[in-house]
Each structure stands twice: as structure tokens, then as C-alpha cells.
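Let us begin with a simple case.
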Amino acid sequence: MPGRTPGERRLIGRLGAYTMLARHDPLEITRSAREAFRSKFEHDVDPDGVLPLEERLRRAEMARKAHFTRLALKSAEVRRKRSGRQS
């Protein structure tokens, strides 16, 4: 998009996203990505596929929670460093 400012390009992208979401179910659009994300944790906890399904799903959920907790901890550390606090 020659001649467009970065702000205009962002608005055009946002307009396209809103138009798409107005025409389609957002859960359908992101279904395959969400399934791939979930299956990554299943594979991480049971790479050989030997666990019973119920146990694999339980462990995958714990791995997913650990992942997001790890992200939250890193975020808190970055916010603390940015604020200048060292405690």
C-alpha cells in the first residue's frame, strides 16, 4: 500500500478483521489454531501416546496452566524491572 502511513495501514487491517468477524463465527475461524495449541500440550506430556486419554488430558491441562503461569511470572518480572523496583 504505497503512500499509506503506518496508522492508515493499521486502520485498513482492522477494518478487514472486523469485516471478516462480522461475517463469520470467530470460534470457527480460530478452531484449528486452538486445537493445535491444545494438542501441543498433549504431545508434550505424552509423546508416545501411551497414557489413557483421561490422564493425558489431565496432564495436558496442568502443562497448559504451567505455561500461562510461567508467562505471568515473566510479565511480572518485566513490569517490576521497568518500574525500577528491585524487591
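The second case is a distinct protein. As before, the sequence precedes its C-alpha cells.
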Amino acid sequence: MRALPGKASRQPPGAEPVTRDAAAADQRRRILEATAELIASQGYAETTMEEIVRRAKVGYATFYKHYPDKEAAFLALIDAAVAHTVERVEGAYRREEGPWPDRMGAALGALFEDVAAQPDAARCVLVEAVAAGNEAAAKHEAALKRLAKLMAPGRELNPRSDKLPESLEETLCGGVVWVLGQRLMAGEAAKLRALLPETLEFLLRPYVGEQEAAREAGEVAEAISA
């Protein structure tokens, strides 16, 4: 409600009032956080909208104002998590000024770091989305394709690139996602950093060969242990 003329000057100083937009953004944040926590801990099928409402500490009217049902909230969670993580991964890739293997090392490091920092949201995207309906699965697949594009330049480093299968990048990304998913399901997000060197070696080997991939992985391992 707008203040009456002269009213603002008579109000005691204090915190700025919360705007409607800020309040709505906070409500969405709480709903998506609750969605991530519940689905990560008990699965998409087992999570109900009622549980999300209680965990988020909002009313049903507030929930419906933002999302028509549980699926819509879950899809919004996937969109937000993917946008945040892919932006960080692609940003790390672009900022790295070294050769392509170094760029992939930076990108993979950003991915592992972001997954470890947001394990609930990451599990929803990497594990739960696959079995949560066609639209969620399609979003999961689209995220993999974006990451796979970063790997395509590696083909230029293989003198026999014409022999590499067309699905190589997506297959390798699928392997990384499987590793991440297994660790998340085991509650071992904090241990992901230690897996970075061997995962990078796994990604690089088809493009630069076994020895060069091992050398790159060794440099990453040294940096981690330093």
C-alpha cells in the first residue's frame, strides 16, 4: 500500500519494507529448496505436494500462486539448477586460457564443485529427473548435450578423429553423470573433489591418448593435494 502524503517522513527509521517481488522470490526459493530436499531424500514418486508445502512453510494458496502442482515445481527446480551449474561450467571453460585439456579440467572442476555445494538439487537433476516423466527426462538430456558440446573440440587433437563414434561425447558425459549420481546417492558429495583427476583422465583419453590424459590428471591431482 502506498504511504499517504507526508506519512513516510513521520515513520521511524528501520529496515526497508519487503517488496512484493522480493516476497514472491523468497517464496519460490523456499518451495524449490523444500522440493529439492524432499525429492533428494525420498525420491520423486514418494514426495507429495503436501510435504513440500509443510517443508517450505507456505500455504497452499501461495504454492498454487507459483506452481500448479508438484511436477511444475520439480521442473522449475531442474531449470534453475541446470542454469546455475551450466553457467558456471561454461564460464570456467571460457575463462581458461590454456589448451583444450586445460579447459576441460577447469570445466569439470566447476561441475564437481557445484554438485558438491548443492547435492540435493544435483541429485534431483542427475538421478531423479530420469524417472520423473518425459519432460524432466528431456531436461536432463538437454543438460548433458550442453556439456557434451564442450568436449567436441577435443576431436581435433585425435589424428584418427574420423574413427571416433558420433555418440562419444554424450557417452562420456553419461559416465560422469553416473559417477556423480552414485556418490550423491551414497551421501558422499564431500568426496567428489578426490575423484576429479581420474574422471578427467577418463574424459581426455579418447582425444589425447592415454599418456597425455594421465599427465593432465596428475597435474590436477597435485593441485588438489597442494
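Residues 70-95 form the longest helix (26 residues). The radius of gyration is 22 Å.
Keep these points in mind for the review questions at the end of the chapter.
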